[in-house]
superoxide dismutase
Amino acid sequence: METERMQGEGELNHLERPSPLNEREKVLIQDSWAKVYENCEDAGVAILLRLFVNFPSSKQYFSDFKHVEEPEELERSVQFRKHARRVMNGINTLVESLDNSDKVASVLKLVGKAHALRHKVEPVYFKFLSGVILEVLGEAFPEVVTADVAAAWTKLLATLCCSINAVYEELGWTSLSTSTG
């Protein structure tokens, strides 16, 4: 588990903030998302399940289902499905607000603060989640997620990670592994 966390950490700190999305990229994201969001809950469940399978340590942050081992059992969990929907609704808000950078910034600030202060989630997990989102969308919607669409999503998710990282830094976040708390 420790290697998993350390692996991504250095990369996250050196992520360069990508250039802002251009109009074409925004349209590609919004059009592709409309198709994904039709199956909001299923897509959200697939994304969270993949996160837990690829990065098992991410389950530690979910008291309601951190001890559930079987993916089938997770899928049936009301709390799990509720969180999957919450993740999808959060992404939906961002996608709908791509033309409003203030709204995007305030949403990311709220998400960052909640995950840093209330949930104590290491920021590297946003990078893990971003990779999982791209992976699952590409597999589940291959006809929608073309190379151009994937590139636009990659840029958006990198922006998201940078913004959330900045919120953590503003809050004076230090890795839990180095703090005595």
Notes: Residues 30 and 96 are 7 Å apart (CA to CA). The chain has a mean pLDDT of 88. The helical segments are 2-13, 23-37, 40-54, 71-76, 78-96, 101-118, 124-140, 147-170. The chain has eight helices and no strands.
